[in-house]
Inverse folding.
C-alpha cells in the first residue's frame, strides 16, 4: 500500500516504481518472481507537470497513439476540458472508452475490464485537483503513459482556465499497482542502477538477475514474447539507442481539429456529450438531401 504525497508527477511515479523495486517496507503486498503488486494505493502530486522523456522506458509515438486511440474519445474529452470553467466545488467526471476483450490469442487482452476508468476535476477549494481513477496500473511501462495523459489533460485545463498546470494538483486512486520484473532490466540500466541491483541481496535483485540470464539466452530459446521485446529494449538501452518522446510534446489525434472547430457548448450540452455521447459530431444522422439537389 502506497499512500504518499510528492512534489510532481515524475517524483510520484519514480517514488512508487523504485519504492517497489527497492522493496521498501509496506510497498509490496504480493510477490512473485515475475510480478509484484501494491494494493489500495492513493498518491498525490502537488504539481500536475510531468517533465519526462518517455523514450527512456521504450515508449514510442506509435505506442502512445495506440494507447490514446484505445482509451480516449477526443471529442468528449475536449468538451469536458472546455467545460472546466463551469466546474467549482463539484467534481466533474470524464470516463474512458470501454475497451472490449480480445480473445484471439491464448490469453484475452482486457479480460478483466478497463485498466483506466476516469478523470475528475474540481476548481475549488484551492488548489484545484485533477484525479485519475484506475483499476490497475503497470508502473514499468503502460502506467507511465497514464501519467503522461494526466499531464496533457492538466495542461489543457490550464489553458482553458488560465491556471498554471504546476498549480493544479494531481492524485491517483489505484487498487493494484503492478511491476513486471522482466520490464525492469532495461529501465534500471537507463537509470544507471542495474549494476547496483545485480550486486544486491534480496528477492527483487534475485528476480532481476534471473531475467538478465533469461534474456541472454539464444533468441530461439526465448519463447516468451514479452521477454524478447524487453531484450531488444535492454540492448538498445546499452547502445543508448532510443527515440526521445517528451511528455510536453504529446498530443491526441484530433485534438487540434476540435480546437480549431471550437464548438461552443452550454454546460448542459457538454455534460450530455461527456456522459451519454448525445450531440457527438460523429453520431449525427446524415442530412436528408432532396432529390436532384446539387451539392458543391
Amino acid at each position: 500500500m502506497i499512500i504518499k504525497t510528492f512534489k510532481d508527477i515524475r517524483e510520484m511515479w519514480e517514488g512508487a516504481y523504485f519504492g517497489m523495486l527497492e522493496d521498501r517496507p509496506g510497498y509490496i503486498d504480493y510477490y512473485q518472481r515475475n510480478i509484484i503488486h501494491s494494493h489500495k494505493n492513493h498518491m498525490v502530486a502537488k504539481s500536475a507537470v510531468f517533465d519526462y522523456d518517455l523514450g527512456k522506458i521504450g515508449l514510442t509515438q506509435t505506442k502512445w497513439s495506440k494507447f490514446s486511440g484505445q482509451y480516449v474519445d477526443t471529442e468528449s474529452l475536449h468538451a469536458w476540458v472546455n467545460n472546466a470553467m463551469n466546474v467549482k466545488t463539484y467534481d466533474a467526471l470524464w470516463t474512458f472508452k470501454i475497451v472490449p476483450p480480445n480473445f484471439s490469442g491464448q490469453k484475452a487482452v482486457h479480460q478483466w475490464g478497463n485498466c483506466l476508468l476516469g478523470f475528475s476535476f474540481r476548481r475549488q477549494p484551492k488548489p484545484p485537483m485533477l484525479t485519475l481513477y484506475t483499476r490497475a496500473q503497470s508502473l514499468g511501462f503502460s502506467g507511465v503513459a497514464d501519467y503522461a495523459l494526466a499531464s496533457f489533460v492538466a495542461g489543457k485545463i490550464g489553458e482553458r482556465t488560465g491556471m498554471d498546470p504546476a498549480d493544479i494538483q494531481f492524485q491517483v486512486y489505484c487498487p493494484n499497482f503492478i511491476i513486471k520484473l522482466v520490464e525492469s532490466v532495461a529501465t534500471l540500466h537507463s537509470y544507471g542502477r542495474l549494476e547496483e541491483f545485480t550486486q544486491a541481496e534480496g528477492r527483487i535483485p534475485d528476480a532481476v538477475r534471473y531475467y538478465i540470464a533469461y534474456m541472454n539466452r539464444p533468441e530461439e530459446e526465448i519463447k516468451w514474447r514479452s521477454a524478447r521485446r524487453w531484450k531488444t529494449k535492454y540492448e538498445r538501452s546499452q547502445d543508448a539507442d532510443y527515440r526521445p518522446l517528451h511528455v510536453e510534446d504529446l498530443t491526441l489525434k484530433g485534438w487540434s481539429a476540435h480546437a480549431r472547430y471550437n464548438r461552443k457548448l452550454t454546460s448542459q450540452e457538454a455534460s450530455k456529450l461527456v456522459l451519454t455521447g448525445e450531440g457527438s459530431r460523429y453520431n449525427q444522422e446524415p442530412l436528408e438531401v432532396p432529390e436532384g439537389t446539387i451539392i458543391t
User: Anything to note?
Assistant: Confidence is low (pLDDT under 50) at residues 285-289.
